[in-house]
Structure prediction request, 719 residues.
Amino acid sequence: MGTVDRSARDEILARIRAVRPDEPVSVPREYRTGPVAGGTVGEPGEAEAAALDGELIELLVDRLVDYRATVRRCAPQDVPGALAELLGEVPTVVVPPGAPVRWLSAYLGRIRRDGDPEPLTVADLDAPGVAVVTGCAVAIAQTGTLLLDGAPDQGRRLLSLVPDHHLCVVRAGQVVGGVPEALARLADPTRPTTLVSGPSATSDIELDRVEGVHGPRRLDVLVVTD
Amino acid sequence: MTTGTGNIVAPLPFPTAARRELADGQLRANLRRATHTIRDKRLRVVGEVPDWPALRRSGAAIKDDVLARLPELLEQFEAAATAAGATVHWARDATEACTLVTELVQRTGSTEVVKVKSMATQEIGLNEALAEVGIEAVETDLAELIVQLADDTPSHILVPAIHYNRRQIRDIFASRMPGVDLDKLTDDPPALAEAARRHLRAKFLSAKVAISGANFAVAETGTLVVVESEGNGRMCLTLPETLISVVGVEKLLPTFRDLEVFLQLLPRSSTGERMNPYTSLWTGVTPGDGPQTLHIVLVDNGRTETLADPVGRQALRCIRCSACLNVCPVYERVGGHAYGSVYPGPIGAILSPQMTGPDAGANRTLPYASTLCGACFDACPVRIDIPEVLVHLRQRGVDARRGRPSAERTAMRALAWTMRDRRRYAAALRAARRGAAPLRLVTGARGQVRRLPWPLSAWTASRDAPLPAGRTFRDWWAGRDRTGGEGTGGDRG
Ligand code: SF4
Prediction:
């Protein structure tokens, strides 16, 4: 659209100026923005911080299972084996450009890397038997949420959307307590960002929860802890 | 000042429309189950957040701050979104918004668009406007798809097809969904969801244009946010080449950080989940990722009118979570259609008449669609004092008619006097029907009472118009904008 009608804009802004409240509003922020696990609030010391990390991971796993995601935990050196096991018979795996090569070093099927050499097409991603493996930017324990922000190990939005099976690798250091900490950790909030909490779901028919409508129907999460 | 138009005008006085809906036993049973299930879930997940009261106070204050600084924040949003590659448009009312969007779609040459569930586009009647010029708008939210295939209107903000059971949905799919595999189509919810997945997948993969609303728009960054469950939103926001987002001017948040409050308040209040399955945030266009053309249409449509009222303006804080619907004893009985607007329930009762002004259709009767029990205020994540606004609007309606002697004025005044404060209203209710639930007053023993007892009787006597002969309420409602009757907002682009 080459030209935008300025008259509507100017009229709306003038109208609002004429009627808006003239008292400035101060916004209280007494809600929790710090570490939390299992409902406890407070600033942890060093010893508590280590214990808290463990608690946060327990909480994240609990929430993810509640959403009916499949959750596995493993040590860093066991990631390739754990991923290969989760992928099982899946014939083709798609990965974003920056996914570590070793992630899939134990997987025997076909690996397609986005952008190498060409960007994958929607048809590539929509083919039967395609799974996608990504990392994440940060994970929220309290709500069981994975944040994907398009960093090189996460890639374009459609990579984690079109395939029917999404595996997400979460490192222990990426797990935070609540929503405020997670948003504060995003490197650049203007990058396309997706918050994922479990597989896609609908409750539109008699409020019966059905997993899997348009997003991936299977979500696996691999939590990597030391 | 231009008032709001579109699908926010009640064609019938609330009691008349309510009586019709009350006759539908299926609707009532479904609604009761739905509202109770969601509100129990909501209570559970709200109960596990120790700082919920602080979050509500912050949510309310952030929105009040937005209203106080709206012109500056809109300009800031426009500048940030434009810098990120979006084109920002402004629409004074529903007609203007529909015309704008229609032209934008026509310019792409597409005759089909995919849509994410959006209250704003329902409000402005966009699907109807597109249909007039031969553009098919495909609703991709499962419930919206059901409603659209059935040629019906939504009955709940959040679960729009809650008035259908699984058998009815199967029948709708079997007869209306092109190419559906009848052998595999049972009335099992997973089978129905699978049918919808197949039907829509082809549309997602071929669509060139998508239309969305937005739950939030961040002034600081120009970011838009859509909160959803099924992934249809992600499909629409990611796959097509062109995205058109229709956003009410009150959807702004000042800073990105403010999302930390609303992404906690909204999912828990809305579906009773700790977090909804998918939330998408996008800012302008990103090379190589998602739509490469983004149009944002900022819509006033009566929001300024609402902002002008110092008591009523708090309705603009609303984040459309539908918690107030689910706790409302009146809504639970009559359902969404009785309110005659895309905004039903307690929030609709204060929002629709303010957006349109009281003289549109029967909107002036909507503030009476309440027992003033206060449950909506307690549930509201942004602390909108709905009972306060209801009482205020009742009074305003009466004042506006002062000096215009009419039977209705007398009736409205009697009603306003009765309902002005909760004690007096409660006393009237008790007098009316000893020991019965408040709504029995309106519905009567078999849902058929035609009059309210004094002092409310004058009102029913004057407002209680029968349905047009030979037509059902649904037919009449659906066809009202084509007949050009009064109060229809029949101004489709
Ligand atoms: S008025 Fe409050 S409770 Fe009702 S839909 Fe709006 S935000 Fe939710």
In short: Confidence is low (pLDDT under 50) at residues 410-423, 425-493 of chain B. The longest strand of chain B covers residues 242-248. The longest helix of chain B spans residues 25-47. The pocket of iron/sulfur cluster is lined by residues B 269, 318-324, 347, 379-382, 384 (CB under 6 Å).
